[in-house]
Amino acid sequence: MRSLLFVPADSAKKLAKAADSGADALILDLEDSVAPDRKVEARRIAADFIARRREGGPKLFVRINGLRSGVAEGDLLAIMPARPDAIMLPKAVGGRDVMRLSAKLNLHEARLERPEGSTRVVAIVTESAAGVLEAGTFAHAGPRLLGMAWGAEDLSADLGARDTRDASGSYSDPFRLARSMTLLGAAAAGVAAIDTVYIDFHDEPGLKAESLAAERDGFSAKMAIHPQQIPVINAAFTPSAEAIEEARRIVAAFAQSPGAGVLSIGGRMVDRPHLLRAERTLSRAPIPAPGTVNVRASETE
Length: 301
Description:
Radius of gyration: 19 Å
CATH architecture of the largest domain: Alpha-Beta Barrel
CATH topology of the largest domain: TIM Barrel
Strand order of the largest sheet: 1-2-3-4-5-6-7-8
Distance between the termini: 5 Å
CATH class of the largest domain: Alpha Beta
Strand content: 15-25%
Order of helices and strands: EHEHEHEHEHEHHEHEHHEEH
């Protein structure tokens, strides 16, 4: 999974258009992009869209309202019968919030006679100062956790910041810290790190630069707010043919010597961290490579 596209769940027209965007996952949004008087209708439209999903189409995630909003349970009651691939949890404050959501999902899955744990969770972990400081606790959030994403806008409101970026256009220190904490927390939890949205969807060079920087630093995917951003994001997070071939060589070498800690490949010493990076590279290859060893961070495919 390289790209996740937010779509207002109260618009059947936008959902249909998003399905053809090329995004690896759609985030059907019941939270920020839906007005309070449209929540019930949004649930109905989203559930119908998920139930009528096309084979081979994008993964379908649903961003519910936060656990402290008072309406999250209504979201789950409406959405879970349609079988979404994952629930996106906004305003998560530590792994304990994922465990709270998991307990609710256990009940829904039991009622619907679905396997326990079949609905995964993606948590947005930096929408409050408390959330940023709890990023390390997601390592204990349980097996439902699929990925950790970060966002800046809600955090800026919590901090009282006038802007998220400095005069040069770079994120200022508090938001750079939130980004880093998400990346580190995801690595500690063994799940996908998902970069935040780039809000100026007309600025393709800026989006490309930010996407490439995120991939360089270890993020495996990026969220989007407009379909035209998807090709840029997919290109940035799709490894080159050379990178794929090198990763295949590393994976094959360790498969032939499973007990080895260090190997020489093409005159270069590679060790277990190189193997992990190779596996993650292959998880984002256009065609899954045979012999790839699955790791939790690659389970977004």
